[in-house]
Amino acid sequence: MATPDLATASAVEMAAMVRAKRASPVEITQAVLSRIEAKNPSLNAFVALDAEGAMAAARAAEDAVMKGAELGPLHGVPVTIKDVQAVKGLPTRRGSRLSDPTAATADAVLVGRLRAAGGIILGKTTSTEHGWTAVSDSPLTGSTHNPWMHGRTAGGSSSGAASLCGAGCGPLHIGTDGAGSIRLPAHFCGVVGFKPTYGRVPYTPVPNNGGLSHAGPITRSVADSALMFSVIAGPHPLDHTSLPDVFPAEVPEGGLKGLRIAYSPDLGHARVDPDVAAAVEASLAALKSAGATVEHVTPPWGPEGPALEREMWGGAFRVFTGKSKADEALMDPGLVACTDAYRDFTLDMAQAAMGRRFAYAAAVNSWFTEAGFDLLATPSASVAAFQVGRQLPPHWPQHAWDWLVWAEFSYPFDLSHGPAISVPCGFSHEGLPVGLQLAGPRLADSLVLRAAAAFLAEKPFEVTPAK
User: Fold this and answer.
1) Contact 180, 158 (CB under 8 A)
2) Between the N and C ends of the chain, which has fewer C-beta atoms within 10 Å?
3) Are 249 and 16 spatial neighbours (Cβ–Cβ below 8 Å)?
């Protein structure tokens, strides 16, 4: 197999080639690093690229193959880690110039699981400052660019992960998601972003942010997402919220036949750009032709989300209130504006918001059963990729920090803790990717993966914009 094919192969293909000795971990890692060397100067997607460490791990993985050792499911497959998860030997900067540059002394749980499965850690990918926004700019690393069009956002906060994935620089990328930060950059970059049910993937240390943060795969296929998910899911004592279930490495069978899928173009309140709306609407035909029943709906809980989410978000980032002017000068101005807006947000207000959040989560999860729907389809976001350096597209009303106005579809499933996936479904009028979101009630992870795979089998998408 030629080097370009090795570089852009799927994780499923790479692992199979290694097991069959048709390609070595060293050859695969070298091919991916060569592609990164060519693409990353334009993307700016790494905080720390550890090529030396990756090659050392690849050589060790190759020795294991030659000695006939037992091989893990990701043996010899390159992986990147978003720079909010600890990787031993590398700092965890979280997109902030105020973060500690000291190298981590231990891996986060999910990173350790990827290593144990044979994954080759390439390095740390860019994030917005503490993951506060879903655009791809941070004061630490500057702008990460969209692989489909330089100068456009790659989305965030898992910016580098989605940018590299869309550019074909490795098959497996870890993202995290508190209001859409896996699915939104996947939408912008034309890849698959899967946010599992809260607790499926241990998140260590457990964030003190109201149970918003999830971790999951960003990949170029649902099969690769399922494989990665099978490795990182499962309980761990360091995360008291982690759930006991483990998952198979393959996408569950069953397709879309017999499923009843609700479709909401706006959740009863969201503004959506016409070309994004049209691309998503056109993709519904694939759901129907694959055997699903699709019905237009307006979920009753939809309009309750915006005010609640902004209180949850402002409360979560209020921890940065009170920084000195010198520190604020080093921070993202949007984050400073967000914290200023919630400077007077009291503990009583936060407790009241959390109570409303619990009621909202119950409403979202129970609606699927009570309304008789298996899944909900929506746009993944309201806009296609716009210019870097902005929180909102220039044709939208401007605000100092409120990017959530174009992300009204993603955060409901962080609040409800249910699984949701973004899969590419079409293009904007500029030829930029558009994502379809498929979401389900809590614990419906296998169904969400199954439906996403069936959709892409019916409506394939070329997920590498430039060979």
Assistant:
1) no
2) C
3) no
Are 187 and 269 in the same domain? no
302-361 per-position pLDDT tens digit: 999 999 999 999 989 988 888 999 999 999 999 999 999 999 999 999 999 999 999 999
Work out the angle between the directed axes of helices 109-116 and 222-232 (0-180°, nearest 10): 110
SS3 317: helix
The H or E element spanning position 286 is helix 274-289
Structure tokens at 214: 């999830």
| Residues 213 and 66 occupy one common structural domain | yes
Show the domain range for 145. 8-232
Exposure class string for 137-169: b at 16+ Cβ within 10 A, else e: bbbbbebbbbbbbeebbbbbbbbbbbbbbbbbb
Examine the domain organization and report whether 199 and 265 are in the same domain: no
CA–CA distance, 14 with 11 (Å, rounded to integer): 5
Residue at 65 is within a domain = yes
Catalytic residues: 82, 157, 181
Looking at the structure, tell me whether residues 105 and 178 fall in a common domain. Answer: yes
CA distances from 335 to 234, 331, 380, 386 (A): 33, 7, 23, 19
Q: What are phi and psi of 255, to 5 degrees?
A: 60, -150
The tally of CA atoms less than 13 A away on the side-chain side of residue 246 is 8
Q: Which amino acid is present at 380?
A: S
Q: Which residue has the tokens 């706006």?
A: 266
**Pairwise CA distance, residues 464 & 158, whole Å:** 18
Q: Does 184 fall in a domain?
A: yes
pLDDT tens profile 375-424? 999 999 999 999 999 999 999 999 999 999 999 999 999 999 999 999 99
